Amino acid sequence: MTNLAEAPSQSGQQRPGTVTSIRRLIAQTEIDVRLFGMLVALAVILLTFNVLTDGTFLRPTNMVTLSVQAAGIAIIATGMVLVIVSRNIDLSVGSLVGFVAMSYALLMTDWLPLLGLGPDFPFRWAIALAIGIAIGAGFGALQGFIIAYIGVPSFIVTLGGLLSIRGLVWYLSNGAAISGIDRNFQLLGGGAQGSIGGTLTWVAAIIGCIAIVALLVNGRRQRRRFDFPVRPMWAEVLLAGAGCVAVLGLAAFANANLWPTGLANRIAIEQGWGEAPEGGWQIATGLPIPILLVIGVGLVMTWLATRRRFGRYVYAYGGNPDAAELAGINTRLTILKTYVVMGILCSIAASISAARLNGATLDIGVSYELYVIAAAVIGGTSFSGGIGTISGAILGAFVMASLSYGLSYMGVISPGQNVAAGIVLIAAVGFDTYNRRRGS
């Protein structure tokens, strides 16, 4: 008997066979195909650079450094998703990062000591961080108010912010670099001491695995409760297994990154660990704090975007502004809130930059806006509004960072990196436009 999957139809074409079956299986898992494609693209980029560098690129030290460099862009990109989804733009994020980073440095070196909050004052770093976040939120609120309530286009407002805030950075520091911030604040920048260590990394990985399984079980229970279709059990098991393997693999990779031998031996002597073993102490750094910040911000922003009224309002407005207003949504306040969120996220990214440099320079945050917008767009955010995901933007940030770091690792200078980033951005937008036209 002829196999129906291979039998020709009356039109002379073959019936869908193996390809259709594979598509049906993928559809049953409900995996975001675009997100999965980006994961594959990221893997291809990393493997390509590893081959071009004779297997030296995919070392734990390089990958941790790459991740820390991508952290600031990824954090801001989560907010840029909401801004672009609401049919606006924010070109001032890089300048705001530079201004807040300089404020952090001056707070801990000049301003707080004048108030009696010297280096020995406990939680001085937390006070500086809170003030910096307030500064970022204030700038965001100002720009959001001008856009939402006065009606000036977001492109003009944030372009003015890009120029004026960058000028304020110079006036703030009189054109000089500032160094010498609080030692506890420096931990936010990562590094050997700015990481949580091997044991806590495994604990975090186990908690992550439990969370993945719990979310899948709860989602299945909720679907059954409201009589929604559920995924096949094999798909649930596959997703849980793949998620846990990925989390545990990342933890193992992070723990393969070790402290510098000299620093490890010095810490061991200070803490009285005894005689060092042959070859020195081997201490796993584990997950850097900036990566934990990215994870935390990603979870909070996903919760805001998908589980809270604010997020639903943003997507409703981006999908159809007129319908959103007719539905009773306070669209002006919603837009204002998106820029306040952006200001807060810029302050968090600025803390990472200032901590890594142990201070601030005039060029912190330069070109951030380009990479942030590129990360959001590559992650699937549409300039037409109403479409975009937080996870896609984070993944887009790591794609951009992988290209930049890989080219830098191979000795390509900054202009060459910008050429590659521009090509990738144009290709991503072109591919997205093509898919939307074909779908319509």
Q: Strand arrangement, largest sheet?
A: 1-2
Counting H and I runs of at least 4 residues, what is the number of helices? 17
* Basic shape: globular
Number of domains: 2
SS class: mainly alpha
**Percentage beta strand:** under 5%
Identify the CATH class of the largest domain.
Answer: Mainly Alpha
Quaternary structure annotation: single chain
Radius of gyration: 24 Å
Unreliable stretches (pLDDT < 50, length at least 5) are: 1-16
| Percent range of helical residues | over 70%
Mean pLDDT: 89
Q: Describe the sheet with the most strands.
A: 2 strands, antiparallel
What is the tally of beta strands? Answer: 2
Under the CATH scheme, the architecture of the largest domain is: Orthogonal Bundle
The rounded distance between the terminal residues' Cα atoms is: 40 Å
